[in-house]
Amino acid sequence: MAGKIKDMSNVKQMLRLHQNGVSNRQIAAELSVNKETVNRYIKRAKYDQLSIKELLKLDDPVLQHRMTGGNPAYPDDRFEVLKGKLSYFEEELKRKHVTLQTLWEEYIAENPNGYSLTQFRYHYRQHTKAKRKNPSSILKDLYVPGEKLFIDFAGDTMEYIDMETGEIVKVQVFVACMPFTDYGFAIAVPSQKSEDFIHALTSCFQTLGGVPKIIVSDNLKAAVTKTDPYEPQINRIMEDMANHYGCVVIPARPSKPKDKGLGENHVKIVYNRVYAQLRNRKFFSLEELNHAIAEKMLAHNRKRMQQYPYTREEHFLATEKEKLQPLPIDKFEVRHYANLKVGLNGCIYLGRDKHHYSVPYIHIGEQAHVIYTRNLVKIYIKGECVAKHPRNYKQGGYTLQKSHMASNTMAYRERSPQYYINRGRSVLPELGEVIECMFSTAKVPVETFYKGCDGLLKLQRTTDPNLFKKACETALLYQRFRYGFIDRLIKSKCRGVSEVNTQQLPQIFPSHKNIRGKSHFE
Question: Which of 95, 318, 389, 392 has the highest count of CB atoms within 10 angstroms of its CB?
Fold first, then answer.
């Protein structure tokens, strides 16, 4: 260790070998000491007023005083140079990515005969220790039963084999412990993403049979491994979860491992008592892996502790479980948030699912605050819940409520083949027959003909009734049911078309008494 005084008997051995003409490098090899240590003592001996022969005759305490200059930590003038830079080094270490190694390299470049890296580190640490005017006298944290739960993810992953593909699937391992009794919990989850993180934590609560008052976690953002525009921040999810379970979340301070020392220690325990013991086993599903982890953690919690006459489980059941808060009736669901504008179609568009949800039409153009879970979508405008829908994952689809739609919108959305057939028959039986035949012979989606039906109904309103009737009869005769054909007949006033006797028209098409709309034609 740098700064530690060598036994003077050992120093005398160095001086004797030097007196016999042995090189410093060889002395270091012969005595198994650092070459720089040999250089330092030989150099100090040369500077002393006494010769080496005279120094060898001195008693050890006297020789020690002369070789160390009365201060064993600072045996030469190099410390005077270093001393002026210690405060500078201290400030530089506060900057990101700066290490003592970096500062030593800069120091030795300016002072080629300066301290070695080991001595440099020793003197700097002595400097920082001396500045601690108020050393901590606080005893080990006296934990309260049922108060805290430490949580973290293990750095190393576990794995299982996908039975269908043969792929090796890596999974994350969530670790938690109750610090008062050191009762532990572990579970494997697919990732550190928010929903897997919350699933692991709520599974821990279920295993404990209650909820602690405080959850002490590592930096919560570390639980999110990939940025997702539709994924809420882990801090927000933790707050929602904590409010649901009636507890609080207190993240450990960055770079303060003592804040969660037992949690870090429990990760090491899991490595030893779960990872190591399962290393030769193969698993073929996440459920199978978690079953094995649960067995090993149960064995760990039931293992007799070295310093106590009881197990962690016995201690937890006797002193801590009854102190936990009861579990709520409803299980927590992750809540997602979005601020969306109500479109001209009277719907908000949830980009995560690519799905539309209706809002009362009076709110078209307004900003909506949307909260959605796995099963439910709630839409708020100006603090009022104006719509509630079951969540639908069909991409490009619409979830609508009739009461939300304006009257003209409802009329538009309720169109169907039967709707147009009924409207056509109500104004002219021949028109109803044309529309019915149009849909019955359709080889494309029936929605394709809706605009043509609207055109025929409009054409009927603006055309001489007799002419329109004759045009429809002609269309039935020639089996031409499109809007364009009938429109051309009317514009030409059916020139070249002889009188048609509808009773003599061949029964080409069967009657269609049971048309039930779109599904009938698909």
Answer: 389
Q: What is the CATH number of domain 148-323?
A: 3.30.420.10
Separation CA 407–CA 261 (nearest Å): 65
Helices 465-478 and 429-440, packing angle to 10 deg: 30
Quote the CA–CA distance of 94 and 106 in Å, as a whole number. 16
How many other C-beta atoms lie within 10 A of the C-beta of residue 417?
Answer: 26
The Cα–Cα gap between 248 and 370 comes to 25
Residue type, 224: V
Catalogue the long-range contacts made by 48-57 (C-beta closer than 8 Å, 24 or more residues apart): 52/15, 52/18, 52/19, 53/19, 55/15, 56/12, 56/15, 56/16, 56/19
Residues in the chain: 522
CB within 8 Å of 436: residues ≥ 6 apart: 421, 424, 512, 515
pLDDT in tens, the chain (522 residues): 345 556 677 788 888 888 888 888 888 887 878 888 888 888 888 877 788 888 887 776 677 777 775 444 444 567 778 877 888 888 888 887 778 888 888 889 988 888 888 888 877 877 676 555 444 433 445 788 888 899 888 889 999 998 888 899 999 999 999 988 889 999 999 888 877 888 899 899 999 999 998 888 776 554 444 445 555 555 677 777 888 888 887 776 555 555 455 657 788 888 888 888 888 889 999 999 999 999 999 988 888 877 777 788 888 888 888 889 999 888 787 788 888 998 877 888 998 888 989 898 788 888 888 888 878 899 998 888 889 998 888 888 888 887 777 655 555 566 778 888 888 888 899 998 998 888 888 776 777 777 888 889 888 888 888 899 888 988 888 888 888 888 888 888 887 666 544 444 444 444 444 444 444 444
Residues 6 or more apart whose CB falls under 8 angstroms from that of 334 comprise 194, 195, 198, 232, 237, 240, 373, 374
Q: DSSP code of 382? A: T
Backbone conformation region of residue 183, classed left if phi is above 0, alpha if psi is from -120 to 50, else beta: beta
CA 49 and chain centroid, separation: 70
Question: In the chain, where are the structural domains located?
Answer: 8-130, 148-323, 336-405, 415-521
Chain CA centroid to CA 341, Å: 27
Name the residue type at position 369.
H
Edge-first strand order for the sheet with 355-358 is: 347-350, 355-358, 398-399
Residue 87, Cβ neighbours under 10 Å: how many?
11
Angle (CA) 460-419-510 rounded to 5° is 85
Distances, alpha carbon 489 to alpha carbons 424, 448, 469, in Å: 18, 22, 11
Pairing of strands 148-153, 214-217: parallel
